[in-house]
Design goal:
Distance between the termini: 114 Å
Oligomer: single chain
Largest sheet: 7 strands, mixed
Length: 303
């Protein structure tokens, strides 16, 4: 009888020993300690001699595209991927099953020092200590810092109000060279999952490519995201273009008046005054830039 009791007990004990420990606070705390996060992990040391960083741009909304200031303002966030083998626990049977990922921030884990090179408001390292980094068991790190990016945009108003503008967001390293960090464009370079349409501009598409730039005698990598927006012309056509065409038509109708009626001069002056008053009203809607001349401006001058 004793043998029948002891054998099941031994089998149960062996089965318990083979069961992986479930997730717990202590288990993750032990994992962080074994990885050295917050203690022996040195965030100033690169994971590799050359770290491959993949970048994607996520657009939430186009805040403004100013023709006179030649600037574009967008709200969004960057998605960065890189590998840090110091944070790899995929081969550790104690943790890899129950802890697929942990989270930290830039105060404890190395991150690439990147800037928005053509920013016109704030040129500083992309940083956000409140946004957590997701560290997967393979050592892959995913970081999504957000911000309002105000960049320089060379505008062309030749065909205003039917113009299309292409604006760049240029990302490059700061301090690190091409030898130390290599930048790559993500397979899905510009993401629009949360994009909200702008009332004045409609999104047309993008292009993205990587190049290198020489700064202080050293080559630095950079990624250029080119965003294309087309103006919605309905407002400008109804409030600017059509009234201007109608006033030009009325001005030519002075020759339909009989010469002996005596109303030609009064009619011409009335149309001219109406034209001048309307020009002052729509002047705020006209693009104020000298880098390119609008066909509409030439038309108004001709009339």
């Amino acid at each position: 009888m004793l043998v029948h009791v002891v054998i099941p007990f031994l089998l149960l004990t062996t089965a318990i020993k083979n069961v992986e420990p479930a997730y717990s606070f202590a288990l993750e705390d032990n994992l962080r300690s074994s990885l050295g996060i917050g203690t022996t992990y040195n965030l100033f040391v690169r994971p590799l001699a050359q770290v491959n960083v993949t970048v994607a741009l996520n657009i939430i909304t186009l805040n403004s595209l100013s023709i006179s200031d030649q600037s574009m303002s967008i709200a969004g966030y960057l998605t960065m991927f890189w590998d840090d083998q110091r944070l790899d626990w995929s081969q550790d049977a104690t943790y890899n099953t129950n802890i697929p990922a942990i989270y930290s921030n830039e105060e404890y884990i190395w991150r690439p020092a990147l800037i928005i090179e053509n920013s016109v408001r704030d040129i500083s390292i992309v940083s956000d200590a409140n946004v957590l980094m997701k560290v997967q068991s393979s050592g892959s790190v995913i970081w999504t810092p957000s911000g309002i990016y105000i960049t320089h945009c060379e505008t062309d108003v030749t065909y205003y109000p039917f113009d299309t503008q292409s604006c760049d967001v240029i990302i490059t390293t700061w301090g690190y060279t091409s030898i130390e960090i290599a930048l790559y464009v993500s397979q899905e370079a510009v993401r629009l999952e949360y994009y909200k349409e702008n009332g004045e501009w409609t999104y047309q598409g993008f292009s993205a490519f990587t190049t290198s730039n020489t700064r202080e005698g050293s080559s630095t990598p950079e990624i250029t995201f080119t965003l294309t927006f087309k103006r919605r012309p309905v407002f400008h056509v109804l409030n600017s273009l059509i009234p201007m065409v109608l006033l030009a038509f009325l001005s030519s109708m002075v020759f339909k008046l009989p010469p002996d009626s005596g109303e030609r001069i009064g009619y011409s002056l009335t149309v001219l005054l109406a034209y001048a008053v309307y020009l002052t009203i729509i002047s705020d809607n006209m693009p104020s830039t000298s880098s390119s001349t609008s066909v509409l401006t030439i038309y108004l001058l001709f009339v």
